[in-house]
Design a protein that fits this description.
Elements: H1 20-23, E1 34-37, E2 43-45, H2 53-61, E3 65-68, E4 76-78, E5 83-85
């Protein structure tokens, strides 16, 4: 049996299909891309997004590894080393729905969103 890297629990499903904090009314309320915590499943918005909830989650919880939650992307990121990481397949779903708009969520993205990016 291969030992899992610290900070990864492949049995935990994602918290939802969008940034949990944005959907809860924290921050800007919309995102560019999504990242999934590999330890607890929290889905947060990427650092290009205004609120940067995925990084904030990693810092607040000490959960070091996230995986892209974008369709077709399988890479992991280690917030401690600030480098790509390797990890196993995580519990499904492995990405946001393909028909979900980017940026999202639909109806929450301001018309000048490109001017607001980090």
């Amino acid at each position: 049996m291969t030992e899992l890297p610290p900070g990864i629990d492949p049995s935990v499903p994602p918290s939802g299909t969008g940034c949990a904090q944005c959907l809860a009314g924290e921050g800007a309320g919309w995102w560019i891309h999504l990242r999934r915590c590999a330890q607890c499943g929290n889905v947060g918005c990427c650092d290009t997004s205004l609120s940067q909830h995925a990084t904030a989650h990693a810092r607040a919880t000490g959960h070091p590894i996230a995986r892209s939650f974008e369709p077709g992307e399988t890479w992991f990121w280690n917030y401690e080393t600030e480098d790509y990481a390797r990890g196993p397949e995580l519990a499904p779903p492995v990405s946001r729905p393909e028909d979900q708009p980017v940026p999202g969520p639909e109806g929450k993205v301001p018309s000048d969103w490109e001017d607001l990016l980090h």
